[in-house]
Amino acid sequence: MASGVIESWDGENQIADDYRIAYHRDHINAMKEAIFEDGAQVIGYLGWGLIDILSSQGDMRKRYGVVYVNRENHDLKDLRRVPKKSYAWLKKAIHSNGEEM
């Protein structure tokens, strides 16, 4: 998965971003491996951003976060924040300190 993915929301159903879950799971597992097998001193993990943001090109087509922002490049729509499937996954991973991934 690249940093950003083109996603859309149908106005009702949860966005099933399994690719984002796999991306974060793989990176967190690599971090855990570095800590426990290589003795790396890691103080945290940051997955770019929690909500969709404008890309460096001022574009909303590519989405980065675990929370969808209901807007497009030239249409602000209602700016509603909609948790994606990865939001629930990340919440569970954080609450379990990485044990439930």
Automatic annotation (TrEMBL):
Superkingdom of source: Bacteria
What Pfam families has UniProt attached to this entry?
Glyco_hydro_1
Q: Which UniProt keywords apply?
A: Glycosidase, Hydrolase
EC numbers for this chain: 3.2.1.86
Q: Which residues cross the membrane?
A: none
Extract the InterPro entries matched here: GH, Glyco_hydro_1
Alphabetically, the GO molecular function entries are: 6-phospho-beta-glucosidase activity
Q: Does the keyword ATP-binding apply?
A: no
Cellular component GO terms held in the UniProt record: cytosol
Could you list the residue ranges forming a coiled coil in this record? none
A biological process (GO) annotation for this entry? Answer: carbohydrate catabolic process
Family per similarity comment = Belongs to the glycosyl hydrolase 1 family.
Write down what this protein is called. Aryl-phospho-beta-D-glucosidase BglA
Q: Which organism is it from?
A: Kluyvera cryocrescens (Kluyvera citrophila)
